[in-house]
Specification:
The chain has 82 residues and is of the alpha+beta class. It is built from three helices and three strands. The chain has one domain: GMP Synthetase, Chain A, domain 3, CATH 3.30.300.20.
Length: 82
């Protein structure tokens, strides 16, 4: 179980680091609550717009990719951008 969670966390981290100007400030944490895994993404204040995108399109895309990967593993994963 931990291996799948780590893969989702790693997926979010790789995507976020590719989008931002300060990849060293990307922090991804995961917690498991009930049957869902919550992945929290934190980036520098100057990079928050790049991760969210216009009208939230990039954030929605990140969530869609993670959801697709989680569905393949038969897991429920929630991505929160802090």
């Amino acid at each position: 179980m931990c291996k799948e969670v780590f893969q989702m966390k790693e997926l979010v981290e790789v995507i976020a680091k590719a989008l931002v100007d300060n990849p060293d400030e990307v922090v991804v944490t995961e917690t498991v609550k009930d049957k869902a895994t919550i992945i929290e993404l934190k980036v520098a204040k100057s990079d928050i717009g790049k991760v969210i995108g216009r009208q939230g399109r990039i954030a929605k895309s990140i969530r869609s990719v993670v959801k697709a990967a989680a569905t393949k593993e038969d897991k429920k994963v929630i991505v929160d951008i802090m």
